[in-house]
Amino acid sequence: MELVSRWASKAVCGAVGGALALGRRAFPPLVRIETTNACNARCTICPHKSLRRPIRRMDDALYTQLIDQCAAGGCRQVHLHNFGEPLLDKQLPERVAYAKQRGIAKVKIFSNGSLLTEDRARALIAAGLDEIKISFDGATREEFEGIRTPLKFDEVVANIRAAVALRDNLRSPMQIHVACCSTRDKQATMRTLEQLVDGFSFGKVHNWADDGFGRRNAGVRKPCARLWRTFTVLAGGEVALCCLDYDGQQLLGRVDDQTPIAAVWRGAAYRRARRLHLQGRQRELPLCSGCTKAFL
Questions:
Q1: pLDDT at position 211
Q2: % helix / strand / coil in the chain, to the nearest 5?
Q3: Which of 140, 154, 252, 285 is a good FRET partner for 28, with 20 to 30 A between their CA atoms?
Q4: 31 with 75: CB under 8 angstroms?
Q5: β-sheet with 175-180: strand ranges across
Q6: Which residues in the chain come in under a pLDDT of 50?
Q7: Neighbours of 25 (CB within 10 A)
């Protein structure tokens, strides 16, 4: 069975990876910038409480440098989040505004919604934020608060409602979406906000490429599209293998005054990771070896 899985994995990775390689651009089409890795929640489905790298906010000069490079490289989408709560960055509206001023077509954040006060929502709308996606898990107050400790269900729902009303009153094009990956009842979860927000999506709980969150050892592997489509910069300028590398265990480089985004994107570490995925040899990358995102 293992031999069959390896053969099938090699075939799938070669075909899908080949198509991804053909479409790879000289500059990443999506750049994820972690302006802070601090978080005010301790969700049961997230390993943030196990984080070993320092909690920090990205330096302003580095951020400006990254956005300038994205603008020059033709990057059309920048996400100002990664492994933290972006609304803890007090300069977030200014950062959004700078990205929009430099011509970035879509600027997006992923938030837990607990800090989305009217003042913050107004500032983000004024800055030109294109989309905010809010994580919302659980069909009931009890389930939500059991997963998203210590956030409060009623507060997050009220924040979302207020943000939508403000957006509509200001006639802003900003999109407000909700994402859920853990709930006992999808229909009940959607009923709370479905008719209010612009979109509602469901994903699957994954293992953060971490044995402590469950491991999947068998099955047909697939190449990870992130290696050809996204570029993740941690708060200190380190370039992570992907957004699931919450502790920066497998770095592909670092963006600084001497090394731009494009150089890391074309660099040896990225090339090796792509090659191993193309060949169905993800097990040689510790972070990818047991990642549940690495299987069909």
A1: 53
A2: 45, 15, 45
A3: 285
A4: yes
A5: 199-202, 175-180, 131-135, 106-111, 77-79, 30-33, 230-233, 238-240, 251-254
A6: 1, 4
A7: 12
